[in-house]
Structure formats: structure tokens, C-alpha cells
Amino acid sequence: MARAALWLLAVVGEGKVFTKAQLREAFSDVAQIDRRLRDLRDHGWRIDTSRDDPSLRQEEQRFVKRGADVWIPGKSKAPKHKASLTPAQRAKVLRDDNYLCRSCGIGAGEAYEDGGGIELAKLNAARRKVLHSGESELPEYQLITECKRCGTGGGRDREVDVDAVLELVEALSPMERRIFAKWIAADQRTFNPIEKVWGIYRTLPSESRDAVAQAIDDVDG
């Protein structure tokens, strides 16, 4: 794994594309080099495949970002979140999150409302990096519900800073904190009509946004 990391840095370069054939040729003496390369992702290395980046061909991968210096003793220790989940653990995560994706809010089996055709959400349990004050060198990973679309759209790069969230909560006015507490109790926020329209408007192409803006000017005029 350490040799693969150094090869990415010295030969491929960040942001560059390489093929499986090039990888295997460079490590012809290493069994299962593909797996060793995948292990780097658990140490913060981002290596995209065609599933992550549609512009890549099936045999191509892109070295996007370096992670921990795994060639240094102690840096290559497997993170605690490596073990796979049992069906019971996965079911508990989904149940605790009320069967809602914690990235986009969609529920299991619901259709995405982005105008991209009918696609029903599939939920799974994922691991998210959580930052705390005084965080150790090895980060904490907590389980969270995430839909397949959010998971393949960069979910593994998401992290949450609990202390930063608490600071934002403390900065709220008393009334805002009461409203926020109600959202927490209900585990949902009900959007008003204008917020719903804004959410849809943002998905429109430029010409369609201009048409909406013109329509509002005509009505107000």
C-alpha cells in the first residue's frame, strides 16, 4: 500500500488519470495490487473510478487527492471503521435516522425531484468523519443513513465539525433556538411555499431562470 501511494505521487501525479494495466505493470511482483490501492481510500486518499467520475472509462482511475503519509511507521494502521456492518447494525442506523438520507433528506423509495427522470432513492448505512475539539490523529467515524446518489457523489469526503455546529447554535437568537429545537424534535423542517419554489428554481437552466425572472417582472409591472 505504501509503495502504491508513492507511485501515485511520483509517477501519476494529483489530478492525473492512470489505467489498471499501468498499475499492474508497475507492480507486477505484488499480488492483489488493486486491493492495496483501494485500501488507501481508508487513509484519506481519493482515487476516483468511472462510478465516481462518468468522464472516466471503465479501465481508468483518477488520482484526485493525497491522504495520510502511509509510508511513515504508524500511519498505515487500519482505521477503526474498516470492518463491514452486520444486517442488524445497518437496520439500526436506518431506524435511528428515521429512514431518511442525512445528506439530502430523501426517504427510502421516494423519487428525486430534480427533473432528471424517475429515480427512486435507495438507502444504505455509511460512515462519516466527525471532528471534535482535541481530536486524535485517527478521526472518529460515525454511522449515518445516506442514499445511493449522495454516496456516489462524494459522500465519502463529507465531514462534520460538531464544535462548529454548536457555535452556530449558540449564535442563534432565543426565538431561533426554539424553532430549531422544534425541528429537532420533529426530525424535519417544513419548507414554506417560497422556499419550495426557490429550490426548484435553482435547478433550472439559465434560459429558464431568465424566463421566470421576466414573468415576475411582468406580473409586478
Task: Explain this structure.
The protein has 221 residues and is an alpha+beta fold. 39% of the residues lie in helices and 14% in strands. The chain has nine helices and six strands. It has helices at residues 2-12, 20-26, 33-39, 87-96, 148-152, 162-170, 174-186, 193-201, 206-220; strands at residues 17-19, 46-48, 60-65, 123-131, 140-147, 159-161. A three-stranded antiparallel β-sheet has the order 1-3-2. The radius of gyration is 22 Å and the shape is extended. It starts with a helix and ends with a helix.
Q: Give the helices and strands as they follow along the chain.
A: HEHHEEHEEHEHHHH
Q: Major sheet: order of its strands?
A: 1-3-2
Question: Averaging pLDDT over every residue, what do you get?
Answer: 81
- Radius of gyration (Å): 22 Å
Q: Major β-sheet, in short? A: 3 strands, antiparallel
Which parts are unreliable, with pLDDT below 50 for 5 consecutive residues or more?
none
The structural class is: alpha+beta
- Strand % is 5-15%
Number of helical runs? 9
Shape: extended
Distance from N terminus to C terminus (CA atoms, Å) equals 66 Å
The helix content, as a percent range, equals: 25-40%
Number of strands: 6
